[in-house]
C-alpha cells in the first residue's frame, strides 16, 4: 500500500524538524558564551557576589556594624566572646566587628559605583554624540573643553570639588558623576565620527529621515556598546575614587560604613592590629578586579571582530 502524498510530505517535515537544533533562549546563549571565558566567569561571580552582599547584607550580617564594645577592642580574627559570639575577622579600635562592617561597606561601594557611572555615562554619551555628529566649530569648542578638563588629574579634580562643596554620600555620588563624563565624551565622539560615514547612515539620509532621527535611531545604538564596556571599567575606577576620598576624609563621613573609612581607621594601628586594614583592602582589591575582569569580557563579547576570531 503506497503512502499518500500528504502523509509523505508530513513525514519528511517531521524528520526535518527533528533534525533541526533546538533554539536556545538569548539568556542561555549568553551563559554559554560566558562559560567559555575564565576571565568572564571570574568577573561575573565576583561582581554578582558583591551585589548580592550589598542587597542581603543586613540579613546575613552576624553583628551590628555600628555596635561598640570597648571590652572587645583590637581582638584578633577568630575571637569568641563570653557569650559565644564569633568575630571571624576580628574587631576594630571600638570593638566593632570587621566582617559585619565589610558587608555594610559593600552597599556604599555598589551604590556609589553604579549611580555615579549612570550619571557620568549619560552625560558623556550625549556630549560625545552631539560633538561627533554635529562636527565643525561646535565639535572643536566642545572638545577643547574636554581637553582642558583632561589636563587636570581626575582624583585632584574630585578632591578639590569635594573640599569646597563638602563631604557626604549624596554629595560624593554627584561629584563623581559630574566629573567622570569626560572619558565617555572622547570615546563616544570617536565612535560617532566613524559610524556617521557608514552606508546605512547615508541610506537613512537618502530615505528622508531627519538628522535627529539619524542621530538617535541609527548612530546611538551602534556606539552604545563602547559606552557599556567603558562603564563597566569606570565602576571599578569610581569605587577606588570613593575609597580614596573616604580614606582622606573628603568622602563619606561616619557613622556610614565604607571600606575607605575602615582603611583610614586602621592605618595608625597597622603594626598592632593588621586585620583592620588587611581585610578592607582585600575587599576593595577583589571587587575592583572583578569589575575589570567583567569589563574585559564585555569588551570581547560586544566586539564582533574579537568574537569572530574566538
The proportion of residues forming helix, as a percent range, comes to over 70%
- Helices, by number, come to 13
Task: Report the mean per-residue pLDDT as an integer.
Answer: 84
DSSP E strands, number: 2
Order of helices and strands: HHHEEHHHHHHHHHH
Q: Could you name the CATH homologous superfamily of the domain at 108-305?
A: MetI-like
Radius of gyration: 26 Å
Using the coordinates shown, work out and report the CATH topology of the domain at 108-305.
Answer: MetI-like fold
Text of the CATH class of the domain at 108-305: Mainly Alpha
Shape, please?
elongated
Instruction: Please report the distance between the alpha carbons of the first and last residues.
Output: 53 Å
Q: How is the largest sheet built, in terms of strand order?
A: 1-2
Q: Classify the beta-strand content into a percent band.
A: under 5%
Give the CATH architecture of the domain at 108-305.
Orthogonal Bundle
**Main beta sheet: strand number and arrangement?**
2 strands, antiparallel
Low-confidence stretches: 15-22
How would you characterize the overall build of this protein?
Helices cover 73% and strands 1% of the residues. The chain is elongated, with a radius of gyration of 26 Å. Mean pLDDT is 84; it is low at 15-22. A two-stranded antiparallel ribbon has the order 1-2. The chain is mostly helical and 310 residues long. It has helices spanning 5-19, 26-35, 38-60, 98-134, 136-150, 154-165, 169-179, 181-195, 199-206, 211-247, 259-266, 275-302, 304-309; strands at 79-80, 86-87. The chain contains 13 helices and two strands; from the N terminus they run H-H-H-E-E-H-H-H-H-H-H-H-H-H-H. The protein has a domain at 108-305: MetI-like (MetI-like fold, Orthogonal Bundle). Strand 1 and strand 2 form a beta hairpin.
